[in-house]
Amino acid sequence: MASGISAKHGLLTTKCSVFHSLQRKILPHAICIQRPTEVKCLRASTNSTIESQHNEKYCIDIVRSRDYDGFVSSLLLPEDARRSSLALRAFNVELAQVKDSVSQKTIGLMRMQFWKTTVEEIYRDDPPVQPVSAELWRAVKKHYLTKRWMLRIISEREKDMEDRAYRNLQELEAYSDNTQSSLLYLLLESLGVKDVHADHAASHIGKAQGIVMCLRATPYNSSRRKVYLPMDICMLHRASQEDFIRGSREQNVRDVVYDIASQAHVHLQHARSFSKNIPSSAFPAFLQTVVLEDYLQRVQRVDFDVFHPSLQKRNPLIPIQLYIRSWKKTY
């Protein structure tokens, strides 16, 4: 009886082995067969990854071409905040280039409205299909960024569509605070920094950056017969808009540049006065001070001649200087 059972067991085993062997020959890839739903999920995941990479590359490219100093500064941020920083800078670039890229104010205002709507949709978890919007949404979800700072940047850029000179230095500072300082507040949030002293420093650095950007853009704007320098300082030194449009290097024009550059320097000094009370984790957000300091030193060397050819060239040592400042953990 036992031998019979053993024989039957052996026969069954043999049959099973033959069956599995035939199955492998007939369906050699049966083990790899996936259900339709699994294939769809795999494709969706792949497409999502490709789209995410495309969005990131778009932001990198636009920041590298339009805000090179900001691009290099972002590369020196901790890896956890780097991608979000590039998204924020890409957002800032998109807004900044509206004014120069439209021929009619109405079109510019429509674009600003698009970004206002976009920000609202981002915070509703429904961002539009656009690379910068998608990257911003990712940054908001990751770092819980404050919506108010984004809307503040848009509103101030929208007001700037008026395309007129600043009435006084305080107006230029207010514009700089609402745009550049707001961007720095967002960068601090992406670094996980919530500190009142860091916010004070960011406010002063943002104002200094806005003032320096206004000076740096003067030759370009003058070539387009546009002058945005504060009118009160121009009037104080009897420098007309025509002087700047002609690219004058007279002393009164230099005096205007000196007064404006001096105010940027004051803001940098104020920002650095907070350095002992600021957590070191905030310092990467302030690396732009290297670029501001470099321009102010160069404009001083040419006796505040804002039209000097050397000021129109990028300093090739800036990336090295940024790296050293990053390594020293100072600003």
Automatic annotation (TrEMBL):
Instruction: Give the family this protein belongs to, as stated in its UniProt record.
Output: Belongs to the NDUFAF6 family.
Report which gene this protein is encoded by: ndufaf6
* UniProt keyword Mitochondrion, yes or no: yes
Task: Report the function annotation for this chain.
Answer: Involved in the assembly of mitochondrial NADH:ubiquinone oxidoreductase complex (complex I) at early stages. May play a role in the biogenesis of complex I subunit MT-ND1.
- Keywords associated with the record: Membrane, Mitochondrion, Mitochondrion inner membrane, Transit peptide
Compartments it resides in: Mitochondrion inner membrane
What this protein is called in its record is NADH dehydrogenase (ubiquinone) complex I, assembly factor 6
Alphabetical list of InterPro entries matching this protein: Isoprenoid_synthase_dom_sf (IPR008949), Squ/phyt_synthse (IPR002060)
Q: Which Pfam families match?
A: SQS_PSY
Q: Name one GO cellular component term.
A: mitochondrial inner membrane
What GO terms in the biological process aspect are recorded for it? mitochondrial respiratory chain complex I assembly
Q: Which residue positions does the secretion signal occupy? A: none
